[in-house]
Design goal:
Layout: H1 7-15, E1 20-24, H2 31-39, E2 45-48, H3 52-57, H4 61-66, E3 73-76, H5 84-97, E4 105-109, H6 117-122, E5 127-131, H7 145-151, H8 155-158, H9 163-181, H10 191-203, E6 207-208, H11 211-218, H12 222-234, E7 238-241, E8 257-260, H13 263-269, H14 275-279, H15 284-299, E9 305-310, E10 316-322, E11 328-333, H16 343-352, E12 356-361, E13 367-370, E14 373-377, H17 378-387
Parallel strand pairs: 1-4, 1-5, 2-3, 3-4, 11-12, 12-14
Antiparallel strand pairs: 6-8, 7-8, 9-10, 10-11, 13-14
Helix pairs in contact: 7-13, 9-10, 9-13, 10-13, 11-12, 15-17
């Protein structure tokens, strides 16, 4: 099955307007496939920093790249060659002086800007950034939403011929990250320790972050537990959803919620092999919540702010979206075909007075729960956000 990524047009536009573009995302998310597809329009040159042959070509990087100043050069796994960034700056500036101001380099990396900070410092003013997330619900209309939820959005996992093959692929993916990939970023962490931590996060899916609790369970100090969390966030594997701050005069929860971003990895870490097992597992509700949050945030308009709201008195909203137009949407997430709202949602809405009140549920129709509250399928709301409605 060929799946067209929604980021394709945005990446092409970015290359038309910026000398260098960084396409970031976790490993196996489809960055190389997307880059090569877009690169066909530019007769691009592709270099993979995990290939010994390509690394040999860049033994004298300035000499090699200077011979290809007329092409888009795609450099994959660029974090393995941090010494390239100062050289790219000089080559970009040389091209600028002869009038070529855009579409020079496409850099692919398996980490956030925080881990690629050298690129940000060296190429400031010359590079733009895009993040490629796992496949999401608007990109997979021909697949059941529950399949996407169970297997996650990493293409090899989602498109596997069976649930068993999908789970094995994800378990191998986790093992590869723990035993090989993380060391590439200079972090010396015992694989089994980080596996335990990642698994704890899966059990804690959507819970309030408590560094002290994680540290006690791992037998490390709070600073070490915090560094593990930072690492997984930098590798774009977890999300910290911030608490919403307001002047409502309430005592509010201040710590963020933490989600493993890909639902398929949540299920692999917990050895959940199929939908029947998932539906009977204690994590089912929070796994669905994380799946919804990721799909909505991927499709939210650029410039949106997101968070959750919880007060000490029990007022709570799962997801708040502050849109660029200034309107705030309150979104509750329910894994039920007959969603019912608790008093805490009404109380939170009374505090915040959102412009819209929505309940995402796993059904297929949109209907009103109350005069000003709408129950809506995930794909429908994602499409509205994508369209800027």
């Amino acid at each position: 099955m060929i799946i067209t990524r929604q980021l394709t047009a945005e990446l092409s536009e970015a290359l038309a307007n910026s000398p260098a573009e960084a396409l970031l995302g976790p490993r196996q998310v489809g960055k190389t496939t997307l880059a090569l597809e877009v690169g066909k329009q530019h007769d691009a040159l592709y270099l993979d920093m995990e290939s010994e042959l390509d690394r040999a070509k860049l033994a004298s990087p300035e000499l090699y790249l200077r011979d290809h100043l007329d092409k888009l050069v795609i450099i994959d796994e660029v974090h393995r060659a941090p010494g390239l960034f100062p050289i790219l700056r000089g080559l970009i500036d040389r091209n600028r002086r002869v009038g070529r101001r855009a579409g020079q380099y496409l850099l692919l990396g398996s980490a956030s800007l925080d881990l690629l900070h050298q690129a940000g410092e060296t190429l400031a003013g010359r590079i733009a950034y895009l993040e490629l997330p796992p496949l999401q619900i608007l990109e997979t209309p021909d697949l059941p939403a529950d399949t996407l939820w169970l297997r996650g959005g990493l293409p090899e996992s989602l498109l596997a011929p069976s649930d068993a093959r999908s789970l094995k692929w994800r378990l191998d993916f986790i093992r590869s990250y723990l035993e090989r990939d993380i060391a590439q970023f200079g972090r010396r962490i015992a694989a089994e320790t980080l596996r335990r931590f990642w698994t704890m996060l899966a059990h804690h899916q959507g819970g309030i972050l408590n560094h002290a609790q994680f540290a006690r369970n791992l037998g490390v100090d709070g600073k070490t537990a915090s560094s593990y969390l930072d690492l997984l966030a930098d590798l774009l594997l977890i999300r910290r959803l911030p608490a919403w701050h307001t002047n409502a005069g309430k005592r509010l929860v201040r710590s963020p919620k933490v989600y493993v971003r890909d639902s398929g990895l949540v299920h692999a870490l917990l050895h959940i092999a199929d939908k029947e097992t998932l539906l009977s597992h204690p994590v089912v509700g929070m796994s669905w919540e994380g799946f919804v949050v990721e799909n909505l945030l991927v499709n939210a308009p650029a410039g949106s702010d997101a968070g959750f709201y919880r007060s000490s008195s029990g007022a709570e909203i799962d997801l708040l979206l502050a849109r660029p137009d200034g309107a705030t949407w309150a979104i509750e997430i329910k894994r039920s075909l007959t969603p019912k709202l608790e008093r805490g949602f009404y109380s939170a809405c009374a505090d915040l007075k959102p412009a819209r009140k929505l309940v995402v549920y796993p059904g297929a129709e949109t209907f009103r729960i109350a005069e000003d509250i709408e129950a809506i399928p995930l794909a429908t709301l994602a499409a509205r956000l994508r369209a800027g409605d």
